Amino acid sequence: MSIGHQTLHLIDPFLFIRLLYIAGQYDNTSNAVVCVFIAVGVIKNSSSRAQQTLINDMTDSWQECMNHCVDVTKQAGKIVREALEKDIAVMEKSSPTDLVTETDQRVEKLIISAIREKYPTHCFIGEESVAAGAPSVLSDGPTWIIDPIDGTTNFVHRFPFVSVSIGFTVNKEVEFGIVYSCMEDKMYTARRGKGAFCNGLPIKVSGQEDITKSLVLTEMGLKKDPEHFKTVMDNIQKILNVPVHGVRCPGSAAVNMCLVACGAADAYYHQGIYCWDMAGGAALVTEAGGVIVDITGGPFDLMSRRLIVASSPRVAQRIAQELTVFPCGRDDAPCSH
């Protein structure tokens, strides 16, 4: 097809290059072709406002990924909910308290298969895949970070906080996050710059700035290193002694972050979790108006295995002041799993 020189003036050359890049991200040929057609001004008979609307729709290049992810998450959630009605076969991974079920593995395979079929060039970091020896490396390319069942121990006991969590990153930044709280039937979604939602309704953090009026979430469990376990328990005592309204341990990192995002809790801190525990919820908290920082109060690092999320910077920093930090490794360190 020959494109006349006069058509190229219809669009800024830098936007043209960007749109061609976006087209290259699509594995759906028709979408890629439409994107290129817009770039060269083929839709030249439209008003400039209509052209801009079309361009804006196409330049939001990850919205289609998010829409597909919501559909896949619904399928995964259905499997989890059905499994809760049956006997659950439980296996151990690294310790008697580190559990995995056939459902964890089945759900992760479903998610990766359904996404890879549509986006074969994208990368994946999945909890069960990493446990089986796959690398945990966050690249600049489009990357899906998946926890098929966040709260496996809850799932085994049918304790009501069980979720499917998926975060999507580009250039190592979270573009969107989806968390489905299966037993509550709550679908949390957040797209960078477009807000956070629960079952389609907007959600916001509480905005609480007074730590003494805050409900704080964390998690505790037996640690292999006795000193680490002692630090976890001492940290809980320090937070309680601030004082705060209370400390709760719901058992699912992704759900904990959703609870902060919707204002049901005011903060959540944790050391020793993984990128798949945090990726989906990170988008929700920030888009709901909250903050996410390192356990020290510094910038958040998705691969650092630690975080504080809170309703306000003031609450986050106050928690950071109280906590004793212990080494918990990194997700992207060799042999870290």
From TrEMBL:
Its cofactor is Mg(2+). It is an enzyme of class 3 (hydrolase). Residues 1-24 form the signal peptide. Mg(2+) binds at residues 127, 147, 149-150, 277. PANTHER family: INOSITOL MONOPHOSPHATASE, INOSITOL-1-MONOPHOSPHATASE. Belongs to the inositol monophosphatase superfamily. This is Inositol-1-monophosphatase. It comes from Gadus morhua. The gene is LOC115537551.
